[in-house]
Amino acid sequence: MLRFPKDLIVASLRHFFDQDSKYSFSSDEWGFPQTPDLTDIPVDAGFYDNLTTRIFIGEHNRYDVIYYPAVLIKAGSFRYVPISLNRNQYFVENKIIEFSDGYERRFVSTPDKFVLAGAWEGSINIDILGRSIQERDDIAELIAIYLVDLNWNNLSRDGVSIKPDISIGAASESDDRNDKLHRLTITVNVRGEWRREIPVNNIVDIISFCVEFGDVSTGNYAPNIEIHTRTDVNDQFIS
User: Fold this and answer.
1) What secondary structure letter does DSSP report for 202?
2) Are 39 and 98 in a shared domain?
3) Same-domain check for residues 166 and 209
4) Which residues, 6 or more positions from 52, have their beta carbon under 8 angstroms from its beta carbon?
5) 193 and 119 in contact (C-beta within 8 Å)?
6) Contact 155/8 with Cβ under 8 angstroms?
7) Distance, CA of 122 to CA of 188 (rounded, Å)
């Protein structure tokens, strides 16, 4: 649970900014951000080609960080949250089996699987670093809207649900050589649920049904069986 939500958010943000016209993300042939030596690279490189990425998106401390603007994702703390006190270990899910013999249909509910379930909750920290205030704020707004609205359903379907209490920390700045580095952190609280199913067929080998008829011609048959005789007009002609 520690690595999966982080990798999923990294991949989602890369795909999102890959379609952005201003902060376009580009990767090399191995899937890493395209961050070449910018010597003699045109100023508008990355807008209409894949010479370089216009934004770095990756795990925290990768290159730490040479390329700006940068979005650095790292996992925070996680904790296990049981669905119930006993992890649903006594919960049994049933299935319906249909039996029919030409006269009537009956439905029987039988145990199908044992179900165990639980959940993990934690936080993902997204650090945004830029050379300008506008650059930092634009990227922060795009990421926040993307996670809580545009891509919430896809992330939830993939197993990571973004909780509604996403927070954007206070902006800060620091000296970076001869320039200023503007920083902002988005904290995303996530929840992931797991479910394990153990088929009952692996435990119960066979369910036997026994039906006893006896000799119906002598009237010596099982007391819980009723025999009805009905003569049709067509039967009379055939006989």
Assistant:
1) G
2) no
3) no
4) 26, 34, 35, 36, 38, 41, 45, 46
5) yes
6) yes
7) 8
Domain span at 67: 4-81+118-198
**88 φψ region: left (φ > 0), alpha (ψ -120 to 50), beta (else):** left
Average pLDDT by stretches of 10, the chain with 239 residues: 87 91 86 79 81 86 67 90 76 84 81 85 93 92 92 89 89 85 93 85 55 56 56 52
CA distance 162 to 144: 11
What the block records as the tokens of 118 is 């639980």
Contact 129, 65 (CB under 8 A): yes
Torsion sign (Cα): 52, 180, 146, 2: positive
Residues 123 and 225 in one domain: no
CB 186 within 8 A of CB 132: no
Do 63 and 155 have their domain in common?
yes
